[in-house]
Amino acid sequence: MDFRNERLVEALAARYVFGMMSARTRRRFEMLRRRHARLEREVRRWESRIDEFAEALRAGLVPADLWRRLSERIARNGGSPHRH
């Protein structure tokens, strides 16, 4: 894999953080993550994004329009955030 490809690294990290990898793929990714600092940084960046969103939810700061867009996106993905 070419970990210089920013889009690839971002997509892999996002799938990992959102739990969208099979168990086998997740184990392999965890091994690669330990070997490639770029993967580790991107995973931490995605985790930070999720933390910020969770804080906004707890504080009630998520606008209604965002909820609508999220619901529409989930519906377009077959009603599930998990695509296998």
Topology overview:
Blueprint: H1 6-17, H2 23-35, H3 37-59, H4 64-76
Helix pairs in contact: 1-3, 2-3
Report on this structure.
The chain has 84 residues and is mainly alpha-helical. It has one domain (6-76). It is 73% helix and 0% strand. It has four helices and no strands. The chain has helices at 6-17, 23-35, 37-59, 64-76. It is globular, with a radius of gyration of 15 Å. It starts with 5 loop residues before the first helix and ends in an 8-residue tail after the last helix.
Quick tags:
single chain, 4 helices
User: Strand pairing plus helix content: what structural class?
Assistant: mainly alpha
Number of strands: 0
- How do the SSEs run, as a string of H and E? HHHH
Q: Tell me the overall shape.
A: globular
DSSP summary: helix tally: 4
Strand content: under 5%
- Percent helix, as a range, is over 70%
Q: How confident is the prediction overall: mean pLDDT?
A: 84
Distance between the termini: 20 Å
Low-confidence stretches: none
The structural domain count equals 1
The major pleated sheet works out as: none
Rg: 15 Å
Brief rundown of the structure:
The protein has 84 residues and is mainly α. It has helices spanning 6-17, 23-35, 37-59, 64-76.
